[in-house]
């Protein structure tokens, strides 16, 4: 029976791309309203935090710094959470009055 090796390379690549995309959106195109601390603002910054967590733990997994199973698990879960938050942040584009 072949053992499956966990590789976080693609998680790292996708998360780095998302990090630079979100950094450009947040800092080069700021919110137009004067009220900064809205629900969507918190969702976007929590998402940026999870993307940074994903990049950190995927890089730690790739270089073998700590327990590879633990860093892989944390990288995958933070990646899933960041993808879910991207979906939630896209709900503001719907014409539902959010």
Description:
The structure is a single chain. The chain has 98 residues and is mainly alpha-helical. The protein is built from three helices and no strands. α1 (9-28) runs antiparallel to α2 and α2 (39-63) runs antiparallel to α3 (68-89). It has one domain.
SSE arrangement:
Blueprint: H1 9-28, H2 39-63, H3 68-89
Share of β-strand residues: under 5%
- As for the number of domains, it is 1
Low confidence ranges: none
| Total of DSSP H or I helical runs spanning 4+ residues | 3
Specify Rg, calculated over alpha carbons: 16 Å
Structural class, please? mainly alpha
Order of helix and strand elements from N to C terminus: HHH
Short description:
With 98 residues, the protein is mainly α.
Task: Provide keyphrases for this structure.
about 100 residues, mainly alpha, 3 helices, about 0% strand
């Amino acid at each position: 029976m072949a053992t499956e090796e966990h590789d976080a390379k693609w998680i790292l690549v996708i998360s780095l791309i998302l990090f630079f995309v979100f950094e450009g959106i947040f800092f080069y195109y700021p919110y137009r309203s004067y009220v900064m601390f809205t629900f969507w603002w918190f969702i976007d910054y929590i998402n940026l935090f999870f993307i940074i967590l994903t990049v950190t733990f995927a890089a730690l997994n790739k270089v073998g710094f700590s327990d590879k199973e633990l860093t892989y698990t944390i990288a995958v879960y933070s990646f899933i959470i960041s993808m879910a938050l991207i979906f939630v942040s896209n709900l503001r584009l719907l014409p539902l009055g959010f």
